[in-house]
Amino acid sequence: MGHFTEEDKATITSLWGKLNVEDAGGETLGRLLVVYPWTQRFFDSFGNLSSASAIMGNPKVKAHGKKVLTSLGDAVKNLDDLKGTFAQLSELHCDKLHVDPENFRLLGNVLVTVLAIHFGKEFTPEVQASWQKMVAGVASALSSRYH
Amino acid sequence: MSLTKTERTIIVSMWAKISTQADTIGTETLERLFLSHPQTKTYFPHFDLHPGSAQLRAHGSKVVAAVGDAVKSIDNIGGALSKLSELHAYILRVDPVNFKLLSHCLLVNLAARFPADFTAEAHAAWDKFLSVVSSVLTEKYR
């Protein structure tokens, strides 16, 4: 797992502070389901996922997206111990949810893209690099308890 | 995997805007790649990789021009990139995993520069298009 410099931590924390987590959550999960439609396999109970607009407007997608991204807020506060922070969630994703960890990488990259859309020029190559470390760290932590 | 008519329309129409910033987009995409995924620098020991280097700018332009070629022949990407495909298979031999990394960095670059155009549908179309380009470039590997 990558090591976060003080600069990484400052970058990640400051960008997070400016984000509307609810909106970004729905946007991120929605885009995951649109761009990588096979990820819909986990969400049979979510109702209408039949088109990009149906997915992006789906209230269950928005609610779940918010849940997921809120949890990422814990990561932002605990960058030095992502494994500890996500130990229980890792077990949950393995034992109960049966999610292939590849999906964590896909979601991470979709989040990075959503940040780029939201922050535009401010999302410089340096800022992106810090966030790639962040999403890679989270993906790694979430898969650390898999067995 | 093959692009739908709608996807092709999205790509081609966005490209008209993108091509006006082609060179800077190319350079910045490589910068993003080298910063976010430092292991990709192993393919460029012979380059000066400092931001703004002439080599980086030249190479960035080359990469984006090739993407442009794929867009211009979006109905026959295999044909348009055949020579490039051979180059990657026999000479460059870049590990296939890196095409995903470069594609992602180009996507992020486009998203940052054209946020209004980068709808979920456009995002999907671009991801798929770059995936097709990557497949073409690795199809002769073995």
Automatic annotation (TrEMBL), chain A:
One of its GO terms (cellular component) is haptoglobin-hemoglobin complex. SUPFAM superfamilies: Globin-like. Keywords: Acetylation, Heme, Iron, Metal-binding, Oxygen transport, Phosphoprotein, S-nitrosylation, Transport. InterPro entries: Globin, Globin-like_sf, Globin/Proto, Hemoglobin_b, Hemoglobin_oxygen_transport. GO terms for biological process: hydrogen peroxide catabolic process. It comes from the Eukaryota. It holds the Pfam family Globin. Residues 3-147 form the Globin domain. One of its GO terms (molecular function) is organic acid binding. Belongs to the globin family. Gamma chains make up the fetal hemoglobin F, in combination with alpha chains. PANTHER family: HEMOGLOBIN FAMILY MEMBER, HEMOGLOBIN SUBUNIT GAMMA-1. This is HBG1 isoform 1. It comes from Pongo abelii.
TrEMBL record, chain B:
Residues 2-142 form the Globin domain. GO terms for molecular function: haptoglobin binding; heme binding; iron ion binding; organic acid binding; oxygen binding; oxygen carrier activity; peroxidase activity. It comes from the Eukaryota. InterPro entries: Globin, Globin-like_sf, Globin/Proto, Hemoglobin_a-typ, Hemoglobin_oxygen_transport, Hemoglobin_zeta. SUPFAM superfamilies: Globin-like (SSF46458). Keywords: Heme, Iron, Metal-binding, Oxygen transport, Transport. GO terms for biological process: hydrogen peroxide catabolic process. Belongs to the globin family. PANTHER family: HEMOGLOBIN FAMILY MEMBER, HEMOGLOBIN SUBUNIT ZETA. This is Hemoglobin subunit zeta. The lineage of its organism: Eukaryota, Metazoa, Chordata, Craniata, Vertebrata.
